């Protein structure tokens, strides 16, 4: 009955629309497959290459203790990220739903781990990630105008908020526009990396380098090493975002694995060369004193183009921010579709076909954390929960492969890669509780707050009768608010199954 009413409402809207030649069947509300191979590769590279390569080198060097070990960390982080991306390529072709981590945990380990992943994504992981990317954007936009003095923190945060607002507006307006913006920004940020790499290689060929005696064993501290990996993995973070939009990828069984492999090999190669360029031109002490490593590099090696680098880096951060806002709302969209989140977030705009409510929910959370957060604390704070659930997802992949060996898997990762990646992730996550107990402890505690929320909302039928009566009234109020928001935002549930 509800389905019939919704179809009637959709047709009634179409009959009063501007284009009278469009039939009801052609304008069925659903997510369209609009992401081909090039946009998919651009989506991954554009999301991975953001602020990380311009911020994380300092964090990697501080926590690794030496130049040589920091370069090794960058290589290992690239290999580890490639292993994880290959595991997610198998998961993405085995389970053809959008939603990424949430979907894979739901299909392999059950609803509670999936709900907790959904909970932490929108309580603090996505706001924290978007906050430190937007802060990097604001810093690179503002600081050149105040050099050599420090830029006002308030102005940096204001510009960061403007950047977030711009990205949210694009993702609310059009999927095609967001995809084209991502392709354009990916080419710009690749040019920015090459602009750093080429002078570095030229200087290296001339014999300039600052990594003699790179492996100084006395400076290595094992308790800080996980934090070095967290900073490196943060810079590689984003290889899993294509899995958030599986239902919008053209020919996902071919394009998802191919896009993942091409993009991650390219990013690893570029990242290692960028860090070699940094250490060729700057000393480790200069790098540690710099809050904007790329700008310091440009002042030393690209004096004629030093004013261009901050602009390119800011656009790079904007591309990463756009990729995050394009992918993460799809997780919330799928979670609401599965009944783990209010139904309003499973709806899409009836004309623009964007998950409008899910995108808009993120906006105030990001702005709030952006105002109160600091970049390096945000990295450690968000990384624990992110990598813990990634490890759980790949563990679920191994369990599912054992339990259902005959299930079709268009792409199958070697078992050694899956086991190695899962073990390393759990090791890094466990050791980080010792390295940074305050931030990782807070992250773990906030993750556990999702357990009572799960049983009070999704499994409320297990509550005492008095409690169920109370939450029933709350549900009626929520349904009323959801209906009013649906009318205001012009959104509806999709009418075609896209998986």
UniProtKB/TrEMBL annotation:
Keyword tags: Membrane, Transmembrane, Transmembrane helix
Pfam families found in the cross-reference section: AA_permease_2 (PF13520)
Source organism superkingdom: Eukaryota
Membrane topology summary: Multi-pass membrane protein
MF terms in GO: L-amino acid transmembrane transporter activity
Chief location bin: membrane
Membrane-traversing stretches: 35-56, 68-91, 145-173, 185-205, 225-244, 256-281, 301-321, 356-378, 384-402, 414-434, 440-458
InterPro entries according to UniProt: AA/rel_permease1, AminoAcid_Transporter
Any one annotated GO CC term: membrane
Compartments, record wording: Membrane
PANTHER family: AMINO ACID TRANSPORTER, CYSTINE_GLUTAMATE TRANSPORTER
Record protein name field: Si:ch73-352p4.8
